[in-house]
Amino acid sequence: MRKRKIFPVVLAVVFLILYPAASFSAAPSVEFKENDISPANQISEVISEFSHLLGKDINRELLAQETKDVPAGVIYEPYISKVLSAARKEGIFLLAFKLIPELNSLVSLQACAQPFIAYLKEDGYCLVKEVGEGEKGIFARYINPKGSEITASGYDFVNKWNGHIFSLPLVNILAERIRSEESKAGRFIAVYSYHKEDFGKLKQLLEDMRKKAESSGKIFIYIDELGLIPPESVKKTKNSMKLDEKEAFERARKSLAEEIEGFERGVSTYDENPFYQAQYSYLAKNKIKSYMEDLDYENWKRIVAFDNLNIHDKATRAFCLGDTKTYVKKLKEYTKGFWLYNVKERDENFRKQITKISRDYPGSIIFSLRGIGHYGLEEKLDLEGFSIETYVIADGDFSENLVSDQMSQVMFSNGVNIAPYEESLHYLRSFPEECIRSYLEKDIKSLTLSTRLAKKIIYRMTEQNIKRLSRDISFAFAKGKISKPEDIWSYVYNWADTRGKIVPAELEFNK
To answer: Residue 56 pLDDT > 90, yes or no?
Structure first.
């Protein structure tokens, strides 16, 4: 038996829509300063205006200082890291990607509905405010470094575009992390998803990767995620076989690893999660070489010890007692601990495993499927001879698909600063959003869609609304109106509905 570490469904973890102004249609007009001469000034100016379109203000002078060594022309490492780090210090989750400079890529970016920075021949780095579709087809509206606003046809745009962009995290787009100009023989692809998605969303990507591997004579390799080996299973093995705990753990881990490795021989394995069951059947049917995440024993012990503290349960109990101050404090403690043991430590070990496999199979195509809360693990990978690519299975804006403490976790995992008040508000919104998400999942069989709809509802609530909800839940418990988790979900949903926070048309449209 194995477990994938996910955030509790009933015990809440939510999200604030991070960039509410990130909409092309509502973008304010902006102009670059014509006296920007140095590359540092140009790149800091374009990032500053990019942040304005997201409804955020950053210190442009500080940004210019942080990027003062950036050279003119196309930027590669180590300057990419300097630019990203400078933006993230200012609270902007900026990333650098390389796409195929073709019309299809522009169409995919249109679906993301967010501004981005693109490198255009003869212009340099330009702020793309809008990608839309008019009578003559796809167009892009952007501002060049001279301050001129230009509307170009999609064909004209891609003819000038080298495929490089700076943007927020992308969804449903296979994008390469920008490293250097040289081409790579191998590919590592980090795929992120919730554990409850429709396998069809992943199958198309797998088919494409598998066929490209076959046509080019490359080995196609899968690395499976292992969130946790249940301590009860380890204890049972320990007692029945008279082993110490580490020996019992290693025996259990080896047994699970052998099941995953069986895919290469055409032997599948059972998983109670339909998404993974379908994926395993696919991998076995196509005899894909597979490995399991090499979970470290010491890390496993820390995960188990942290879980046994039941901090999340304590946070939830505080909210239901009307004590939102203790709730926020405990949920923050839980989120930081969960990130440390289940994300940071696990991902560091996972990177070592990926590096070893890449050395053992140079020129291969390797992919991993990871929970969406691990987003960004590939950015710290440096695999010789491999491109580093990423793909997120989700809908809408990236931030809409994450509950609040997950988003906070992803941000500080990637070095993005969060203002203390903003972080506290993330946590405060968590419990009611998780309740409404669970309520909606009864009718909407999509975790990502339920999450997005729940967050729209909670985003309409003020801080005082949520604190009042917490007190009202406490009174409802005292009066015996709530006795089981489903009662809380219904209570929170009805509480929001009676206060006009739910728009029926949104729910009907998305069912």
So the answer is: no
